[in-house]
Design goal:
Layout: E1 19-26, H1 31-48, E2 54-56, E3 70-76, H2 79-92, E4 98-103, H3 107-111, E5 116-118, H4 127-130
Antiparallel strand pairs: 1-3, 1-4, 2-3, 4-5
């Protein structure tokens, strides 16, 4: 029987997933919460910005798409980056709610049945996704 250590780390996600999104939410009406999220974003860039397959997007200070509050997003394009970033965010998220979901061209499923929540689950605006 092969040991886990003998198994090579995957270089791609299971089909049909091609990447993962991580959405970190904050209350855009609370200056301290906005500052906390901004600092967390900068810390992610500082610690992990060297990873070529990590994209960290801007702070959205108002709801956008299915996201009911302010948020910023990280795009994880390789399993090794997922394995590095997600556990770190789980521990150092500063109390922010976090949605982790695969990308596989079924937006509704990505944000619901295939999603992982860290912290308090947010009520997404799913009607927007039903038309995608």
């Amino acid at each position: 029987m092969a040991k886990l250590a003998d198994t090579p780390f995957p270089t791609s996600f299971p089909e049909p997933t091609f990447s993962y999104d991580v959405h970190i939410y904050f209350n855009e009406k609370d200056e301290k919460d906005v500052q906390s999220a901004s600092e967390l974003r900068e810390e992610i860039i500082q610690k992990f910005g060297h990873l070529e397959d990590l994209r960290v997007y801007k702070l959205h200070t108002k709801p956008i798409g299915p996201h009911p509050t302010g948020m910023f997003e990280c795009d994880l394009r390789q399993p090794a980056t997922f394995a590095t970033i997600v556990p770190w965010i789980q521990l150092y998220r500063r109390g922010h709610s976090v949605l982790v979901h695969p990308r596989h061209n079924d937006a509704l499923k990505e944000h619901t049945t295939d999603a992982i929540w860290i912290g308090e689950k947010q009520p997404l605006l799913l009607d927007i996704l039903k038309s995608v």
